[in-house]
Amino acid sequence: MLPSAAVFYFPWEINSGSVEEGQSVRTFGRLVCYQPEESRATLSTQHASKEHCVVVHTLFVEPFNPITGAQYIVLGEIEKDEGVGAMVRARVLNCVDGVNIALLQKAITEQRNFFTERERKQGAQPADAT
Amino acid sequence: MQAASMDPAEEPPSMLWGLDPVFSAFARLYIRDILEMTESTQVPGIYFYNLHPISKVDVLGTVVYKREREDFFCYGVDDGTGVINCLCWKSDLLKEEREPSKSGAQLSAAAQGGFEPVAELQKLRRAQRTRCHLEIGELLRVRGPVKTSRQQREIKASTYYKVSDPVMAVQISWMMEAPQLYRQCYDKAPQLEPDAAGDSAVSSLSRATKILKDFLKQKSVSRFRPYDVQDLLQPLISSQPQAASADQEPVAGPSACQQLRQLLKEALQILQDEGAVYRKVKSQDEVYLVTVQDKDLLVAVKDIIREDSRREKYVEKGCHVLHILSAVRQRYSLNVSRAALELVLKTLECNSDIISTSDSHYTAI
């Protein structure tokens, strides 16, 4: 009944193949283009002097007010599509323009480190991907 | 995880739960941990995270699921580690429907500059209603006890509201804080051992002080000599185990009678330090006066304040505690301590004989 938890991923991880199809994720990026006729938006982020794009399927969150150039947070499931690669089918798409992205990245890393540290301490069980 | 694998035999006895501060706080756990913590076998509705007894939680997350019933909302909240159902009862305010035409008329009156309590109240109600009514994708904060119904864990909200977080500042600070809270608190094993190894000398002294205080209060004693109350402390001496008395260096060896006198002396000293009792005259005859029962002292202090607060110097602010203290010492007794005077002032204030104008100034009524 409830959807599975949407774990934070960095935009450059979405396309790297480490995220499996059907997995719930949340990520962020600057809206660079929106094609309403295809219900498709593209979020982009700069990381390590490279531009990383995340394609978002927006059918479930329409209508929304697209502000090109603004930061967005997207929450949804990964769909692998031929041609586009990994795509996020959005359940939530929020404009968070003005967000401190550096701080957000730090918070995500902190949270991850905490969980890996805890799992390492507990030893035995392998990390489950909830 | 570690909570889930906890052996039920390890569960600390419920008598000791209250010793863990986490027990009476709203624990800010990750939703994943809330879903995985084990329920107590002794008391359903209490859960254990890492041996910490948890009765209620505090979560912040995105609404990803929503169902509305006549009496409540059911929100699925996702904090990035798990999703949990939150049962949010609608308050009566929320269920009431208002006639829009009436409220519109009153609002316009308020807009003209007058303060309209009715209109303001309606604004408040409307604000509350919008804060309780969330859509998917909005941020929700929920506090309340955890319960398990039909094998599903949910939070029964005691407070819930929509959080306005346009630039994610609240979410980010929450995410940064949680690992700290875990490291400093939740992941540390609680100290639930009852204080068995406590210093028996100290605890018998505090028990002695309590016995004396209770006695003085119950019987409204106004004055006493040490041997009047000595017998009250007898049970403490005889009940003390032999080993404990051997540890007490200064009184080791002496008879029970000497121990008793020593204990009484220390207890009376504590009462004097606290100001509960004082000796008006220091003489061979040890007479202790109970501060708040000493009518003469109360009258003396009252008179001082009444007279001196008329003086030009004090008329505006009232008399300072230290001024009263020196006056009392001059006119009444040299041995009145500040602690004793403060007790007297408190008593007089409770009787509305005087009022405090600041935390250290008093004036007569």
UniProtKB/TrEMBL annotation, chain A:
Compartments in which it is found: Chromosome, Telomere; Nucleus
Predominant place of localization: nucleus
Cellular component terms (Gene Ontology): CST complex
Keywords linked to the UniProt accession: Chromosome, DNA-binding, Nucleus, Telomere
GO terms, biological process: negative regulation of telomere maintenance via telomerase
Transmembrane annotation, as ranges: none
InterPro entries: NA-bd_OB-fold (IPR012340), Ten1_animal_plant (IPR029146)
GO molecular function: single-stranded DNA binding; telomerase inhibitor activity; telomeric DNA binding
Family label: Belongs to the TEN1 family.
Name of this protein: CST complex subunit TEN1
Organism of derivation: Oreochromis aureus
Name of the gene this protein is made from: ten1
UniProtKB/TrEMBL annotation, chain B:
Stn1 C-terminal domain location: 200-365
Domain CST complex subunit Stn1 N-terminal stretches: 45-94
Keywords: Chromosome, DNA-binding, Nucleus, Telomere
Compartment annotation: Chromosome, Telomere; Nucleus
MF terms (GO), sorted A to Z: single-stranded telomeric DNA binding
Coiled-coil annotated spans: none
Bilayer-spanning residue ranges: none
GO cellular component, one term: CST complex
Gene Ontology biological process terms in this record: telomere capping; telomere maintenance via telomere lengthening; vasculature development
Main location per the UniProt record: nucleus
Function: Component of the CST complex. The CST complex binds single-stranded DNA with high affinity in a sequence-independent manner, while isolated subunits bind DNA with low affinity by themselves.
Subunit structure: Component of the CST complex.
Identification of the protein by name: CST complex subunit STN1
